[in-house]
Amino acid sequence: MPLRRLALLFSLLLVLLLAVGYLLLRNLVILPYINEEVLATQIQELHSLRFQIQARQAALRLLATDMASDDQVLTYLADPDAAPNQLPLHKSEQLAGLFLYDATLQKRYESVSQGVALPLLAGDQPFRRARLMPLLHPHQPRSRSGVLRQGGEAYHYAAASLCTAMANDCGHGYLLLVHKLGDDFATTLAGSSGLRLSLRLAQAEDEGLPDLMALSDLTRPRQRRSLLLKDVLGQPALVIELEHTAGPPRELSRYEWMALVCMVVLVILVNLLLGHLLVRPMERGVAQIRAMERNQQFRPLRGGATISEFRQLANAFNSLMRMLSQQREKLKQLARTDPLTGLANRRAMEQFLEQEWRRLCRHHRGLAILMVDIDHFKQFNDHYGHGTGDEVLTKVARVLESLTRRGGELACRWGGEEYVMAVTEPTAPALEALARALQQRVHQLEIAAPTLNQRLTISIGIALLEPGQDPVEQGFTLERLMEEADRALYRVKAGGRNNFELWRTQLVAQPPRP
Question: Which domains does the chain have, with CATH numbers?
């Protein structure tokens, strides 16, 4: 066979092999990898969407808890002859309904917007609405929130137990607020999540759609999705139809097929330019991706490719990497930091305590939990305003942060005006000195309120599991330690506040292991 023909056949075979190799690499390596990253980004977007919904429920629950702590509401509830206009509640224009129930869930008061039908809440069957309410506790305020579908409409609702202003006498009944999920809700969600979405009421055929609150079932990326949002009674409430910011890569276009055919026709040119146009960019991009995967450090793909397909693929990959990095950073900050004070939040503290408890069970290093509460903060906040109240919360947080410098210590905002500190390898004298230092520094805080004529004080409850004790063998748990710290704080508050109490375990110290 002539050398020219042999070279031509060899070039044609090489082009065909390269074309087949390109298709295999694209479909078996690059596309599956990109699809995994796209799916991860889409799941992060759905987590952000779910967080926005839960945040609105939390805001409504906070409003219900605040309104339920009015002593005049308890006075109204205790008087069976009180007229409805004597109830000192001011319903927001954004609320669709406001209801007041006694401890047996009998309705005592209702205020419903025109055109709103809420048969479950306004009817005479209290046992049916019991599933919407939190369990009553005589000394602790309780609340619950979620989505409720009634009368062909979907609503956010929040129920809170009625308590005195000091939150030490609860269990008298419930206050329930209802907010309609209308077009403004979809607009707000779209603006906060960056997704194109729409809402509609769920139908019977929507029962099989993926649940927004259970994202583990999503296994493939899709440009558009329909997700189901169920209410607290387990009934389908809303269907969220959305479009993700990033979708899976497209299949081979006809232009790509034409390029492959042209390579067969232009075998000589392809044979000369093969290394520069195809092999080198492919190898460089694959090497970068594999290096990122091996080192777990994802960076943008460097440019320089001549073929437009590689450039488009690299640009899509780089866009996904940037978006994923931004989403991860935002979610990490939201998940572990309190936005007002900058301290760790409750979730971060729970993770820290779980890790330290496992170390404690192995090495018996000891652990102490301090629960810190700002005395009379609600009255202070109501009198001087939320701006001054936020200043107090922030400055107290700085005091706690300044006294937790070791690696085995962490301070967090537990909720409202309550903080929690965790100290490893503690001793009783050191904890007492720490409590006194906290009280002294808080007492010395300067608050920018022109009419403020008193100093801040705090109450502290301390629970101590001393080093050398094995809680596993004696059945002592982290939850028990938290409960003892909370009880100690309660006793301090019941005894007049501005003090601290140290509770110590009565476990028997274990002999050292051989």
Answer: 3-26+252-329 (no CATH), 68-181 (3.30.450), 184-243 (no CATH), 346-504 (3.30.70.270)
